[in-house]
Design a protein that fits this description.
Length: about 170
């Protein structure tokens, strides 16, 4: 009998100062993905069986276990609920060097908060694997998602302010 595969997961929650529909858009618009997630390229289709692929420039430094970071993350959108949630399956991280890590799942939920102008965002990434590469990847992603969601919050705050200033200059 085969040994059970260990399930690793990272769950992060962040309050974002934008309505749920706008927060969902942040995951599917290339300009937004470049703005908050520092993606170099992105192709994301917000519908069931849509492609989801994000690429980052390779880092100059090498992690002692994973090698250079960056590379690409890709999967298939299995479930998409506009303004509310999406679920990716068969997701893989393709590092710049070495073998991919996957399959994994990514689940994103956007819940209205306060007066509906804010969103409580929850991101959960999980995968069944074992060994030092899997453990190191999820250790990095634990900190990575925390930083990415903080960057998302700062990005949307800047975008809202920029939009306000643009509107004011037209009046």
């Amino acid at each position: 009998m085969a040994a059970a595969t260990k399930v690793l997961e990272v769950t992060r929650t962040q309050l974002i100062s934008a309505p749920p529909a706008r927060v969902m858009q942040l995951f599917f618009t290339e300009a937004d993905l470049k703005g908050w997630w520092q993606a170099s390229r992105a192709f994301a289709v917000p519908r069931p069986l849509g492609m989801y692929a994000i690429e980052w420039e390779s880092t100059d430094f090498k992690d002692e276990i994973l090698g250079r970071l960056g590379g690409a993350f890709h999967g298939t959108v299995i479930d998409f609920r506009p303004g509310a949630s999406f679920f990716l399956a068969d997701a893989y991280w393709q590092p710049p060097d070495g073998d991919p890590i996957g399959p994994m799942a990514l689940e994103v939920q956007c819940r209205p908060h306060g007066n509906g102008r804010q969103t409580m965002l929850t991101v959960k990434q999980s995968g069944g694997g074992e060994g030092p590469r899997w453990e190191r990847y999820f250790s990095i992603m634990d900190r990575g998602w925390q930083g990415a969601l903080q960057d998302m919050s700062a990005y949307i705050t800047r975008e809202i302010e920029r939009t306000k200033l643009s509107r004011e200059s037209r009046t």
